[in-house]
Amino acid sequence: QVQLVESGGGLVQAGGSLRLSCAASGRTFSSYTMAWFRQAPGKEREFVARISWSGGIRYYVDSVKGRFAISRDNAKNTVYLEMNSLKPEDTAVYYCSAGRKVITGSAAYEYDYWGQGTQVTVSS
After folding, report:
1. Exposure b/e, 47-73, CB count within 10 A at least 16 = b
2. N or C: which end of the chain has fewer CB within 10 A?
3. Residue 55: which residues within 8 A CB-CB, separation 6 or more?
4. How many beta carbons lie within 10 A of that of residue 8, not counting itself?
5. Which residues pair with 115 in a beta bridge?
């Protein structure tokens, strides 16, 4: 069992930065692929980024490439999402997720555990 708690969301102006954190409970954190998804009002949940258990493999949705960076610290059971050059279209609730048997890595059904989400609002 893994419990995930996100933090770091907030209101920021376009062009600004935020750093999201996701703290995980459980001793097997390092064996999970971790990912960030987001969901804007009236839209489906969207894959944003994922990182392999070792941190050596990272994937991003095209819309955030070059602006967002995912990282993890297995010693601290924490995964991060550094978000720079934020745009109003990045406004959403951001969710942290963990999965063991991840194939494509971008489908929500592949992830077993989810946090409660943290709101990110980017004003223009």
Report:
1. bbbbbebeeeeebbbeebeeebbbebe
2. N
3. 71, 72, 74
4. 16
5. none
Q: Which two tokens stand for residue 14?
A: 């376009």
Residue type, 69: A
What tens digit of pLDDT does each residue of 70-123 get?
Answer: 999 999 999 999 999 999 999 999 999 999 988 888 999 999 999 999 999 999
Cα gap 71→58, rounded to integer Å: 8
Residue tagged 């990912």 (tokens): 35
Query: Which tops the pLDDT comparison, 114 or 28?
Result: 114
What is the 3-class SS of the chain, one letter each residue? CCCEEEECCEEEECCCCEEEEEEECCCCHHHCEEEEEEECCCCCCEEEEEECCCCCCEEECHHHCCCEEEEEECCCCEEEEEECCCCHHHCEEEEEEEECCCCCCCCHHHCCEECCCEEEEEEC
